[in-house]
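Troubleshooting log. The previous structure file for this entry was overwritten by mistake, so regenerating from the original sequence record. Sequence copied from the archived sheet and checked twice against the printout by T.R.
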Amino acid sequence: MKSISPIIWNGLSLELLDQRLLPEVERYVHCHTFDDVKKCIEKMVVRGAPAIGVTAVFALLLTARKYLQSFAGPTEKHKFFFSRFQSHLETHGAILKKTRPTAVNLAWGVERILNKSRNLKKASPLEIIEGLEEEAKIIFDEDIEINQKIGEQGAKLIGDHYTILTHCNAGALATAGYGTALGVIRSAFRQGKKIMVYVDETRPFLQGSRLTAWELQKEGIPFSLIVDSAAGYYISKKDVDCIIVGADRIAANGDVANKIGTYSLAVLAKENDVPFYVAAPLSTVDMSIDSGKKITIEERDAEEITKFRELTLAPVGINAKNPAFDITPAKLITALITECGIIKLPDQNKMIDLYNKRGEHS
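Regenerated output below.
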C-alpha cells in the first residue's frame, strides 16, 4: 500500500509534491518540460536519491517526446535523425547529472533511459516515445517494489518495543512512494511491532522535522522530534536501540555518503555500542568509486543556513559553509539493508558480492 505519492506521471506531465512547503501546504508542481523538472531538482521541490533518479527519468522522457514529435522526415533519413536525437538525449542527461552530483541514483536513472533509447534506434519516433515511457513507468514501479523489499529485510532487525533514531528523510518523500530507512520503520510498524522513533530535525533544510515527522504522523507511528544536537544525549542514556539512515551513494568499499550529520551519528553509535544501519537500494552502490574519499560532496547555497524561507537566522553578509552530505566509513556501519538482503559489516569483498547481485536483479 502506498499512502504518500510524491511523484505522479499523468501521461502528459509530471506532478511533484513540493517538499519545500511541507508540512503546512500539500501542493504539487506541474512539470510540462525538461527545464521544469530540472528546476524542481535543483530547487529541492523533489529530493532524496531514489526520488531524484525517478524524476530524472521522466525529465528525459519529456524532452525526448518534444524532440521526436517534431520529426516528420522520410524513412531513409531516420538513421541520421536518430543520431541527432540520441545526442540531444545524452546532452540533457549530462545536464541532469550535474544538478545533484552526490546522489548516484540520478545518474543511474539517466543511464537506464539512455540505454533503452539506444536499443530503440531502429524504431519509429512513436515507438521510441512509447518505449521510453514504458521504461520510465517500469523504473517508477521498481522503485516502490524494491523499497518494500528493503522494508521487509530491515524489519527483521527491528525488535518489539524498539526505539529507533533516524536522520534526514529517507521515506516515501525521498523515493517513488515507500521509503528506504523509513520504509524499514514503516514495515516493522505494519507487522504490529510496537516501536517509537526519534526524529532529529536535520538542519539546515529540516527534512526530519518537516518531512519525516509529517510522514510518521500520517502513518500513526509514534515518534518524538529532537534537535540534532540532542541525539548524543539520548544515545548515551541507552534510549536508542538502533539508528537507521538512508544513503545517496555507497562506494565500492562500503563507505556511505548521506545527509550531513550522518557521520556524527555513526561515531556516537560506535562509542555507545548501538547498531548503525544503512538502508538503500542496489542502485545506490557505485562500484566505480573505490572509497568515500572520492565521492563528490555537494556544497549548497549558504542562505540555507543563514535563512529559513523568509526568516533571517544570522547576521547579513557573513560567510557560511553548507556541505549537504558527509562520508561514513564502512567500519562504522553495522549492516547495509538492501532489497537482496542484509550485508553485515560491509567491506570490499562483500560489496563485490553485492554488485554481482545487482547484475542478477537488473
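The chain has a mean pLDDT of 93. Archived copy saved in two places this time.
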